[in-house]
Amino acid sequence: MRVVASSRDEPRLRAVAEMVAPGSTVADVGSGDGRLARMLASRGCTVIATEKTRGQTRRLTTAISGTTVRVVEGFGLRPLRDLCLDVVVISGLGSRSIARILEDAPAALPWSLLLQPMQDPEALAHALRRLNRGVGRARLVRSRSRIYPVLEVPLGLGWNGGPVGRREDLLPWFSDDPLWDAWRDEVLQRGQRAGARASDPGGRWRLHGEDCGPRRDVGHASTSLASKI
Ligand SMILES: C[S@@+](CC[C@H](N)C(=O)[O-])C[C@H]1O[C@@H](n2cnc3c(N)ncnc32)[C@H](O)[C@@H]1O
């Protein structure tokens, strides 16, 4: 697969890069075309960029040639086992892929993490809860006409979300974000497009305890609004 991040991806990638302290030693797992790795290197970071297959690693090596970024091949966190890193970034993958990568890791994950899931944060909430890792800073970013979450998972912070590890458990970290309302609307629209049925017995959409109106306002959706996020 050839991965090309268009310039429309830049706000998303920049938002991730900005949450890494300049000068950090950082691994960019699933680096794709290496655009984020380049941004991190230009912030004075020492960067290890990974890809999972031989072909993708070769393409990445070509893409970041002329930079200080070091490329390694391997699945998820496996190639990082013995490395001393300030932060591991996993960006632009689905939540389930990120969860698989985290759960495949060596017994303890000895690094801070910066996670930018593309969709379905429920799987991520589950994984973080199982791994007893909590969320520190979090932000939303608009990019390519969508809004994406970015979550910092600092080393030493235990799970600080709700008791079940549902999608809703990730929401408190974003409710003060200026993009919160827009994100909620975007999620509503996605629910409408999905065209599935609502299962909220009260016939109303709820988002993190907030009543968002009668179900008919948003068409037919498969689950509660919160579970669409
Ligand atoms: C959509 S690209 C994202 C690229 C970049 N990180 C970004 O944020 O735009 C996902 C990349 O992750 C790689 N990838 C997926 N699963 C992986 C895994 N388990 N280990 C390493 N790389 C993986 C894919 O090969 C692909 O290049």
Mean pLDDT over the full residue set: 81
- How many structural domains? 2
Poorly predicted regions are 1-5, 196-229
**CA-based gyration radius:** 18 Å
SS elements, strand count: 9
Task: Give every kind of bound small molecule, once each.
Answer: S-adenosylmethionine
Portion of residues within helices: 25-40%
What's the story with the biggest beta sheet? 7 strands, mixed
- Hey, roughly how much beta strand do the residues contain? 15-25%
How far apart, in Å, are the first and last alpha carbons? Answer: 28 Å
Elements, N to C (H/E): HEHEHEEHEHEEHEE
Second-tier CATH architecture of the largest domain: 3-Layer(aba) Sandwich
CATH level-1 class of the largest domain: Alpha Beta
Number of helices: 6
CATH topology of the largest domain: Rossmann fold
The CATH superfamily of the largest domain appears as Vaccinia Virus protein VP39
Overall spatial form: globular
Structural class: alpha/beta
Q: Any overview of this molecule?
A:
The chain has about 230 residues and is of the alpha/beta class. It folds into two domains: about 5-175, Rossmann fold; about 180-229, no CATH class. It is about 25% helix and about 20% strand. It has helices spanning about 10-20, 35-40, 55-65, 95-105, 120-130, 180-195, and strands at about 25-30, 45-50, 70-75, 85-95, 110-115, 140-145, 145-155, 205, 210-215. The strands form two sheets. A seven-stranded mixed β-sheet has the order 3-2-1-4-5-7-6, with helices on both faces. The protein has a two-stranded antiparallel ribbon with strand order 8-9. Helix 3 links the parallel strand 2 (about 45-50) and strand 3. Helix 1 crosses helix 2 (about 35-40). Residues about 1-5 and about 195-229 have low confidence and may be disordered. S-adenosylmethionine (SAM) binds near residues 3, 51 and 76. S-adenosylmethionine binds near residues 3, 5, 30, 76 and 97.
